[in-house]
Write the structure tokens for this entry.
Amino acid sequence: MDFKDYYKVLGIEPSATAEEIKRAYKKLARKYHPDVSDEADAQSRFQEVSEAYEVLRNADKRAEYDELRAYVNNPNQFRGTGGQFFNFDGDFSAEDQFADLLRSIFGDQGRFSGFGQFEDHRPRQPSRPTTHALSVSLEEAYRGASRQLRIETPGNSKTISVKVPKGIKPGTELRLRGQAPDGGDLYLKIELEPHAEFSIEGDSVMLTLPVSPWEAALGTTVPVRTLGGTVNLKVPPNSQSGRKLRLKGRGLGGGDQIVTLKIVNPDVSMPAAKAAFETLRDSFSFDPRKQSQQA
């Protein structure tokens, strides 16, 4: 991982005060936040700005970072945290101490290099991928969303900005290279939160729609909720319970919304309602069991 000049990232001088650092961060965070920015590299720039602020806002981390930066600008001589001068011309024990200083600031996030002037050459075990579940609502999966997510592993933690793609399906894994707390790849497995109205089958969004007996028999147009908003649905005449109607493109990732009709009878406890249904009964020579056998 190349050394980054965090002062340049935030567009400030090394002598900047804590208040100036904070102001610069807020300005750039607003500019590059994935929720509002149209920049092609907004997410990576936002993460870089957040990383710079995380180091420079802390007085102790900033002091260590300034020592690191001083070494990058003058690699022949470097003053360590204990006040001792190290000369890096072939002195690998001093090199090890400098590598430890890097890790004390950034964690074990792979190789650091000061514009090609220094690398940690000690043997290192490859970082293992980290898997984390990311739970999103159906609305977020449909429209896309941005999340701030804190990832914790034994001995490490990290807060990252995650952009959830529009139309993402449950079970999908997002791979974020180098974003795990130990510097390895981070895999986010998408899980969908339960919804009060909708369910998911593949890329289809499923909804049960209650209709009255006369709406099913005569046909009607009714408002129906979708993840993208309310639309009008035409119920054809002579519809039965269980009939499935399709709303194209209203599912996840270009899938459809499937609306299943469910006939719901009104309450007939009142005499007038009961009389109306008795009249309906007497007006038809209709046996639903016989009809189903013929079908």
User: Anything to note?
Assistant: Confidence is low (pLDDT under 50) at residues 77-98, 109-126. Residues 180 and 294 are 63 Å apart (CA to CA).
